[in-house]
Amino acid sequence: MPQYLISFNEGAMRHIPAADFPAVGQAAAAVVLDAIEAGVYLFAGGLLEPNTMTIVATDGTVAHGPDPACRDFIGGFTVVEVASREEAHRWAARIAAACRCAQHVREFMPLPPQVEARIRRG
């Protein structure tokens, strides 16, 4: 079954007054709990500010801070496994309402068969 990344960019929630964040958190948690109950939830989380990130180069060198060429960063995400893009859109709409910001929906590429087989074996 296809898996979808539902995400929003860092800063997309800046329009929300600080006093409203507890309600936003409760609304978002309610959607996640519904997704768990529906059996479509795989993973979700919010990410710390981009200035806390590190970049690891192909030679293993670690640089602190975001890539200066990058302007957009994911602020939070949910990964669901659903039958169709339309179903992913329905979950994204619920998350958008809860988080009070638009959501991006992207489908994951299928896993290589040998990886899929290994996951199924456990």
From TrEMBL:
InterPro entries xrefs: Dimeric_a/b-barrel, YCII
Domain of life: Bacteria
Domain YCII-related: 58-97
Family: Belongs to the YciI family.
Protein name stated in the entry: YCII-related domain-containing protein
